[in-house]
């Protein structure tokens, strides 16, 4: 009996050791892929421990996903060495809803008689620029505004243009727009600036730096202009679908607190709140055989996150994550 117990103990020790080695190998591969360098051995050990806990959470979720109990898959990405609190603090932003509706020119009113296509993907018509990366600056709002504007510029003028997020980061801080640069902001104020300013510079003339700098707008380098900012009725997913289908990609803000581990599938999280902390662009919509109706949303965390930089978010599920609460687009 003692011999059997000893063998079981040895097997358990070997299994635990091999699992630890596997996780350490995965951590080393993670560091290499995402160019992670830590300041010292203590910090590296801390990040390893966080990575291991996150990997356990991911694996548990994916067991449920494989069993058909979850609509999306989790995976290791560049945020896998962060705690959930660090992710919210360092990656997401604080958005005050009171600032979200200032400067709206018109409200989009869809026709109830018009039928919509079952799916829309503006990438297929060439209206969508490649996924960008905001880096460590909390400038998602600028990328959301620019992402929508670039697409509407193409749709209306048949011209592909890459516009300057840095122009918005630098020039909408303080009066009268009160965005906070890398500390957060609203796409509505970004587009208000473009309208009031008579344009926004091109990316090539005013490249992205991912830091708060002084405003260096140059009227000789205008890439696009807008005449108005259009709001979609708050919380109305049917109106949002109509605007996406008929007008083009739409700037939206959402609760992205649970985006940290997303890898693929339809992100359906009923616990997602109506408080917003991140802004993205809705480039289309459709229906998935597993996850159901979804919004096709372009993020600004680079192509090595999610579905090549995209996330499919649950659609027609009571405005989940507030995706239809602050939807706007520019009028060219």
Automatic annotation (TrEMBL):
GO terms for molecular function: cysteine-type endopeptidase activity. The keyword Protease applies. It holds the Pfam family Peptidase_C1. GO terms for biological process: proteolysis. InterPro entries: Papain-like_cys_pep_sf, Pept_asp_AS, Pept_cys_AS, Peptidase_C1A, Peptidase_C1A_C, Peptidase_C1A_papain-like, Prot_inhib_I29. Gene3D superfamilies: Cysteine proteinases. Residues 1-16 form the signal peptide. It catalyses: Specificity close to that of papain. As compared to cathepsin B, cathepsin L exhibits higher activity toward protein substrates, but has little activity on Z-Arg-Arg-NHMec, and no peptidyl-dipeptidase activity. Belongs to the peptidase C1 family. This is cathepsin L. Its EC number is 3.4.22.15. PROSITE patterns: THIOL_PROTEASE_ASN (PS00640), THIOL_PROTEASE_CYS (PS00139). Residues 116-331 form the Peptidase C1A papain C-terminal domain. Dimer of a heavy and a light chain linked by disulfide bonds. The gene is LOC117567986. Keywords: Disulfide bond, Hydrolase, Protease, Signal, Thiol protease, Zymogen. It comes from Drosophila albomicans (Fruit fly).
